[in-house]
Specification:
- The protein is an all-beta fold.
- It folds into 6 domains: 2-108, Immunoglobulins (Immunoglobulin-like, Sandwich); 130-257, Galactose-binding domain-like (Jelly Rolls, Sandwich); 280-438, Sandwich (Jelly Rolls), CATH 2.60.120; 460-614, Galactose-binding domain-like (Jelly Rolls), CATH 2.60.120.260; 638-794, Sandwich (Jelly Rolls); 820-970, Galactose-binding domain-like (Jelly Rolls), CATH 2.60.120.260.
- Helix content is 2%, strand content 42%.
- The protein has 2 helices and 57 strands.
- Strands 18, 19, 20, 22, 25 and 27 form a 6-stranded antiparallel beta sheet that branches. Strands 28, 29, 30, 32, 35 and 37 form a 6-stranded antiparallel beta sheet that branches.
- A hairpin with a 4-residue loop joins β1 (39-44) and β2.
- The longest helix has 20 residues, at 2-21.
- The relative contact order is 0.06.
Length: 971
Amino acid sequence: MKQLLNKAKVLCLMILAVSYLGCEEDDEGNVLPEVLAGFTQLTTEGTGTVSFINTSENADNYEWDFGDGTTSTEIDPIKTYGTGTYTVSLTASNAAGGSDIFEDELVIVVPEAVALPITFDGANVVYDASTFNGAAFEVLDNPAPGGSNNTASKVGAITNSGAAFEGFFFDLGAPIDLSADKTIQMNFWAEAAIDVLLKLEEGTGAATEVTASHGGSGWEMLSFDFTSEDSFSRFTMFVDGPGTTAGTFYIDDIIQVETMSGGGGNAPTTSAPAPPARDAADVISIYGGTYTNIDGINYNPDWGQSGLAFVNTEYDPGDGNFALAYPTFNFQGTDFSGNAQDASAMEFLHVDIWVPEGTDRQVKISPINGGGGTGVGEFLVEVPLTPGSWNSVDLPIGDFTGMIWDDVIQMKFDGQFNGDGSANTDPHDIYLDNIYFYREASGGSSAPTTSAPVPPARDAADVISIYGGTYTNVTGIDYDPNWGQSGFGLVNPAYDPGDGNLALAYPTFNYQGTDFSGNAQDASAMEFIHVDIWVPSGTDRQVKISPINSGTGAGEVLVVVPVTPGSWNSVDLPIGDFTGMTWDSVIQMKFDGQFNGDGSANTDPHDIYLDNIYFYREASGGSSVPITSAPVPPARDAADVISIYGGTYTNITGIDYDPNWGQSGFGLVNPAYDPGDGNLALAYPTFNFQGTDFSGNAQDASAMEFVHVDIWVPSGTDRQVKISPINSGTGAGEVLVVVPVTPGSWNSVDLPIGDFTGMTWASVIQMKFDGQFNGDGSANTDPHDIYLDNIYFYRSAGGGGGGCPAPPSGELLSNGGFEANSGDAACWQLNDGGGAVAVIDTDANTGTYSARLTSGPAQVPNIKQERFASSIAGNQGVQVEFRYKITTSFVDGAILQVLAFSEFTTDPAVAHDLGNAMDVTTVDVWQTYTGTFTTDSNIEEGISLLIQATCGGAGTCAGEVIIDDVVVTEI
């Protein structure tokens, strides 16, 4: 209507203008026509595709803003939207400077296919189930909230007629991928015990099915654990499949969840460890079977958490020791506000926690203080968890900074965090036991009752043992030197925890040590210091350790070691942590315990037990050398590579692989190291930095795009390497680029030359490899071995060059399979468009090569061939066909667009929108795209083809596709 009114106004104005002009003299000059912007649109129902019809007048330039962050300058653009409301504006202008703006609001609703998770609450989801053998299906309001589904929301209703194998299925919009998570859970309602069969079909492998049993108590959570590795696009369900049970059943909240690795279960099969005996005055028990729990506790308060009313306080892991079970846990807690507790005399909060394997989680725990006391409400403390086993957690009350304990009324457990601290919105099961506050009883646990862990077998050359029963200790050690410490003369190097494995015992410890100055040790070849430490429960302490040097190095460099009281702490400290320490003449070890766990001073001497004190390095006969060669580089044209070292390409001449730059290990290089398969590598022992010199044969690498090198460092070597090509010409002489390396395996590194900021490449004369850095970027002065192979500069062949072959007979487009010149992208332009485009050799419909486009927010990666079929006639029908495979579903506005252009000598090309690929959510299946268009009648210089993965401005927009076998023909 707005547009009709606008047009009516224009018509009236035009009539008035004509009448007026008809009476005027020409000497007043010409009046330019007014620009009037306008458009209408046609929406293809159910697709989100909108065809805009430009009705602007007296304009020849158009700027569209589609309201989602994308724009266009086409006359009549076609745009595909996702569900939402968009304000579209068109600015029309002409060469004389006139312009006008018209805008309209669009409401787009795109029906969504059913996909997990299935809640039956999606406003745009089409929950049309296909039924068979007499079953009926509908979506309705939850008729019986309670049990595991206490929400008044929509649910699916299945009505059985009483026939065998009746049921329903959904064809899913996104397949269920069982390669990692193999468990499907759902809420299911029945009034009597019954079996439910879930079958997954239409997949990359054979159909698979699993049965779960319902207990008949209303809403219950069912789990279906599959073993298949495949993906499936059909979800089929039978209630009492082989039987003849009639009636109506309900389903809701169908989700895929983490599955225990190794095919195990999702619940503990053993109970949590039994707590030790304690006096009643030393414990306040909230939940557990060992102590007497306080009265008046609600283990499932309604705080708005997921899984409310799911709690099962009668979960039995199989040995009769019950635990709290919270399915679909995001946060939970206990409430005892009617029986507030004064926990100010307690020292620790204890809880045992179990989460399923594959659940990368941490839990945050908080006691909460009521209004009757002096403290504030909530202090969360992080607890990292090891999945698949019970985690016994003892948190000192001092960790809850600012908490006052005189009026504790609640406990909160919050699981909305991944193991790295990021937010997690995926509810998962959790099991809790033995929740209590406690303090150490006077005369309580003050000595270890088990020995420290036994160290692994090591070669004598790889260890210097100071104390322990596994390796041979050095001689001449005083384990109780008189340094003025408390407890001097009380050391007991024969403390037996009960199993005959003796330990050093230092009562009333503030600091202690060992002295072997009569037998000084050269530990410069070692990599770590190991010690096992035990301090009594209730002792909130840290220990500082120092090796002490009488030679060229610093005399005492203390490193902090946090310790968990009441258990053995096995500590491995990289010698690099002792900054400034040199290791050629170590004469003493010092252990200093005058610090609390928060680093503050502690003047309260306490007992300490030590075992297995030694220096060590990773076994020289173990993973310290590569046993396989580096990956073989791909075939490349000689013009596309400058090889410095390797067996695949022809290396340049005149290279010195061991120039004397003052580095450690000079003269030790072995350029003929054989990992066992005949493919030699460069080996640099005691590496701190090294390089190659070819200054007598300087190389012009300015046409190259990347530096490649394969790097191997030993396991246990926490290192990074810095690489620099060095220039003798106009550029910076040395620009180091950081390369993190994974020890114990080959690291294949491709560095864009643009990473070497300021470097020019016309006269490269050297390569430098610098390993004097730890993995965190700190300095490393510990030389170690390094192995290098396949050092070369290269460029991606072609990208429109490389010799574009003629098109196949009967076709118009060349190299549609990307196979020409060993996949060098000849004939094609690869345009990143903010995303990523590459010709790959890892997945192809036919042949070896294909093109991969990866898109994200506001990105338009594309492939394009320009001005081919130069002799094609006007008004000629053309068909474009290609194969495509979606490897990451196109979501949140992502589309796969196909556009063609009729080209002209000077005029702008005429665009032809061939429409978007329809199915961009089915993953890992090769599909066929076909589109047609008719060339412009005045075409002059052939046609161009553009295939692009287009993302709008949505922050979650994404998609990845592989393109192959592009064929363009006349029709």
